[in-house]
Every structure is written in C-alpha cells, then in structure tokens.
Amino acid sequence: MADKKYIPNPERKPRFSGSKSSSKPKIHQKSERLHAHKSQPPLDRTQAEPQPSEEQESDRTDDLIYGRHPVLSALAQEHSINKIWITPQLRYDPRFHTLLIEAKANGTVIDEVDYRRLDQMTGKSNHQGVVAQVAPYKYWELDDLITQARSAVEKPVLLASDGIMDPHNLGAIVRTAEAIGAQGLVIPQRRAVGITSTVMKVAAGALASFPVARVVNLSRALEQLKEAGFWIYGAAAEAGDSLSSVQFTEATVLVVGSEGEGLNLLTQRCCDQLVSIPLQGKTPSLNVSVATGMILYEIYRQRSQQQLHLKIKTADNIEKIKTREYKEI
C-alpha cells in the first residue's frame, strides 16, 4: 500500500492563537488593531445611556413608596425612612413640614427635587410630589405574633397566605384585615411575595398596627398555631363548605391562596375545615383580596352577634336576680 501524503486543511484553525502557525507577526496584528481603533468614529456623548431592564428597574424601585397619603402615614407612624425626595412646594405644606423636621432629626435625608426627577424615579407613576425610600420591613417571630394576638382579644383572628405573588393583592388583604379587626398575618418565605414597598403603599399605613410573621414552612406554622389553640380554616373555591354554614366560634386562622392555584394540597390537609363562597354569576372566581374581605366580614359578623347575645343574656339574668330579690323583700 502506498504511503498517504499529509494534505493540510486550510479551514482548520490552530489550537492556540499564539502558536507559530499564525500567518502574520504579532507586531503587524497590533498595528492593525491600533489602526482599526483610530478609524472608529468618536463616541457621541449626547447619545442616551442604555436603559435598565424591567428586572433591574424593579430592583431599583423596590424600596420606594410614593404618594402623599402613603408617605404621610409612614412619617406619622415613625416608620424607618432612609431618604425622602419632595418638591419644594410640598415640603412646606403644613401636613408635611413638621413631620419632615422630625424625620430629619432622626437621620432621614430630605432632598428637594422637581417633578421631572420624581417621574424618572417612579416611571411616571402618580407620586403626587413625594417619594420615600423605606427601610426593609422587620418581620415578627411567629411565637411573638401568637402571644400578641392572644393578649389583644380573647378569640383572635389571624390570616395566613399560601403562594400569593401579587403585591397589590397582599397589600389589599393587609389593609382590609387590619380595618376589620384581625390581629396579624403569616406568610411563607418562598414562592410568595414579601412586604415590599408596593405592599406598603397599597396597605396605606395598615402595617404600622398589623404585625406580619414570615415563616420557612407554612405547614409547620399552621401546626404550631393549632397547638396554640387556633382553628384553621382554608378558603377553597369549590371543595369547601358554604360560608353561611360555617361557625367561627374559636380563635381562628384563615388561610387564603393565590387566585390561579388556590391552596396547595399539603396546606389543605393542615386545615380543620375548608370554606367556599357560593357564586351565582358566570365569573368562576373572586379576587383573593375580595374573597378574604368577605370571609373576614362573616367571621366578625358572627362575633358581633355572639357578643350581643351574651349582653342580652347577661342583662336578662341581672333583671331576673333583681326581680327575685324584690320578691324576697
């Protein structure tokens, strides 16, 4: 057999860029790079800088609250605020002026800016002339939340959220729950939204008097609440008992899930009873914050009736005792 001659492949590149197979000396390559660099047009300083992505923008504004009422509420309730950007006209408004002086004395930086700057910071949202950078929310320990709830009322009502990702929904739940009279909220650390600036804004100051505990495992937290004497009720779209037939007579935890997924199976198994709201229309479900408000209203409606019945019964007993004493005389 004749020996095969080696024929080099012209398309094959050398293994190392700095090997001897390079066709040109390094000095020539460097000269060409310098020439190419000089031939490029000068950088236009007037060109706009690359805009941040939506994710980057979200990270940058996640600690901001804006609007007169949310910022006023944060100032009045002495929430920890790092910095406030405010228009000169609003800074000396009587509603803000004294609170800003107190905030500045506590270390808050006050920066006077124009509306254009605030538009840039908030993406042209309705900031109403004021933006504040708030410190991260300080979550409660579950043990402390239980103790606080038990000391507040005889039969407290707590909420627990399972997989709620929308901060607007969570903020609306906090606002409604605090207004109706619930004692606090339990949220999971993973696969759920925490207390962000959006939640604070939607809650409209309710977080100042409404404690929130964040737990690693929601199922374990529900078991701990059971051991503390709470009854666990889960809001279910179809599988639960009708709301009007459920009696909320003991210390209560209401667990609500996301609109799309609802309560997961493990959470449902932790519940003592599932509750549903009968719907008559064609819309298959309610917004989670609306459904939460409806169930909370029913809980406190029953509590009010129980208290009224107890007062009437007590008054009747007092009247009977007085009548008996009068007859004995």
UniProtKB/TrEMBL annotation:
Keywords: Methyltransferase, Transferase. Residues 1-14 have a biased composition (Basic and acidic residues). Residues 64-140 form the RNA 2-O ribose methyltransferase substrate binding domain. InterPro entries: Alpha/beta_knot_MTases (IPR029028), Ribosomal_eL30-like_sf (IPR029064), rRNA_MeTrfase_TrmH (IPR004441), SpoU_MeTrfase (IPR001537), SpoU_subst-bd (IPR013123), tRNA_m1G_MTases_N (IPR029026). GO terms for biological process: methylation; RNA processing. One of its GO terms (molecular function) is RNA methyltransferase activity. It holds the Pfam family SpoU_methylase. GO terms for cellular component: cytosol. Residues 1-64 are annotated as: Disordered. It comes from the Bacteria. The keyword Transferase applies. PANTHER family: 23S RRNA (GUANOSINE-2'-O-)-METHYLTRANSFERASE RLMB. Belongs to the class IV-like SAM-binding methyltransferase superfamily. RNA methyltransferase TrmH family. This is 23S rRNA (Guanosine(2251)-2'-O)-methyltransferase RlmB. It comes from Planktothricoides raciborskii GIHE-MW2.
